[in-house]
Amino acid sequence: MSKTVNRLLSLILFLVLFNLFLTKSFLVCLPGDVISLGRNDTEGFYLSTAAIGAANLWRALYAIFAPEADLIYNPTGYLEQIGDFNESQNIAYAVVNRYLKNDTDEQQLAVPEAVQGNSGGLLLALAFYEQMTGQNIARGLRISGSGTLTNEGFVQPVLGIKQKILAANQHQIDVFFVHPDNLAQAKSIETEMLVVSVTSFSEALSFLLDTNRQSLYNL
Fold first, then answer.
1. CB-CB neighbours of 42 under 10 Å
2. CB 28 within 8 A of CB 60
3. pLDDT means over runs of 10, the chain (219 residues)
4. Which is nearest to 47 in space by CA: 30, 34, 64?
5. Could you tell me if residue 118 is inside a domain?
6. Is the residue at 112 inside a domain?
7. 150-179 b/e with 16+ CB inside 10 Å = b?
8. Into how many domains does the chain fold?
9. What CATH number does the domain containing 127 carry?
10. Domain enclosing residue 159, as ranges
11. Alpha-carbon distance 90 to 190, whole Å?
């Protein structure tokens, strides 16, 4: 009887320690919400999100077997380092202000408080540009993407591209912007979207302002 109890206690201890290891070392990533930044819900700019959280035993098992989920090794403490959304919004606004040579602090984009992280910087900047210039740069398309924006207007790669692509595809997004480092994974997922690789805000804007894009890309 004592051997059985000892084995059971050892198993429980192992599971507790293993669960702790998973929580500290791995993330589970799932498709998140798609949030409209535009004037309506038929065109404009959309934040595609991924639900990223610390793993545990049950979440890890789900991520291993669910095709839409990923179990991501997290040696650098991603959740502790994730950027602040408000800071990302301020950077995006400053980048557009500098691009347009404006000097205004007025921001009018309504984004739910639940949105976290800094991977929406590029899309926020494009939406700010449309708002500040009054131009309809989306021109009937539903546009999304994911990329952290630096103060200099450069795009950086992000985690969770697979899940963001899946979420965007479910919401009939037409164009999805990614950093070149995320391009291979984004294109490995079969969708109807056009995936476009960009390294900066100005490069993404140039694509949208290109009057030949509709014929070139069959949009």
1. 11
2. yes
3. 68 64 79 80 82 84 89 67 74 91 67 69 92 88 93 92 95 95 94 94 93 60
4. 34
5. yes
6. yes
7. eeebbbbbbbbbbbbbbbbbeeebbbbbbb
8. 1
9. 3.30.230.10
10. 33-49+82-217
11. 34
